[in-house]
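Friendly challenge for the regulars: who can give me the structure tokens for this chain first? No prize, just bragging rights.
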Amino acid sequence: MKSHLRFALVSILAPFCATFSAQAQADSSIQPYKVVRTSKVGGPGGWDYATADSDNRLLYVPRGDRITVYNLDTLAPAGIVPGASSVHGVAVDPVSHHAFSSSQPLVMWDSRNLGVIKNIGVQGNPDGILFEPATERIYVLSHHAPNVTVVDARTGDIVGTIDLGGAPEQAASDGAGRVYINVEDKDNVAVVDARTLQVTTHYDLSGKGGGPGALALDAKNHILFSFCHNPAVAVILDANDGRVITTLPIGKGVDAAEFNPDTGEAFSSQGDGTLTVIKETGSTQFVVEQTVATKSGARTSTLDAKTGHIFLVTADRIAPAPVPTLTPSTAVPASGNGAAPAPRWERPKMVPDSFTILEVAR
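First reply, four minutes later:
Bragging rights claimed.
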């Protein structure tokens, strides 16, 4: 009797065990993300938002007074877009094949041959930048008014400005007429109607995350990932109504984020040398899948939609002297108590020709 029962149980459970075993093997075959390539490209100047143009296989990297361009597959130099001052980012319209720099003035060029089309004078202090596909417009973000300058990507004409009530950082579009923008100094996400250029609401992050510095969007499932500085967390929201679903820890010094719809993963890059990977495991379930070690200072990143690879940029830094010499230009006056003036610490300087591109993949 026992042998018959054992045989029956084995027969019933065998398919389930086989399925579980196959799933376990499939899960174990998924490799972790890691830095698969490091390319020291050098050159003077700082940097900000890197941008992958997956269609044209180009990587744009702002370098202060110019935009350096690299082949996205080989990381070999592919050209330079000149004529800008204090460049912070790039946005590309894949329909008109026009690209724009977030700079003063904006530079508009042909993304197929890098030929400059014209310069566009704008107000404010251009920083972040976004291409909005539903209206085929470019959103130029500024910490100073106007907070957003909107440009027709086909003609390069300014079509309007938007007051967000605070300083914007990164933005994301759902492709259907809604634009979401992190407002860093107000701890909220502004929701903009892309057709009317009106702010329809603000999603409050207070009590969950402060100083939102990067934003990613799962447009299909209507999930927002707002990556914050204080505390260093990802606040995950319902994009339809701003309801906070959960929060998860990230690294320190976040400055850029992306979402890969093919894998259901959100990425945030931090200046502490980490890349946080958050995985959607259900409609309201999320986990920190991995914290990838990158390199100190690699705070900005971009996703190559074709390969799913993440590209980050950084450089080595020279630490300031531990006891700087006090001079009239480096001394801070005492506060009236007779104490000696305190030293003013210098910001770390970049090691010459140490600028580096990192590629992260499985």
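The chain has one domain: 46-323. The CA atoms of residues 151 and 157 lie 6 Å apart. Your move, everyone else.
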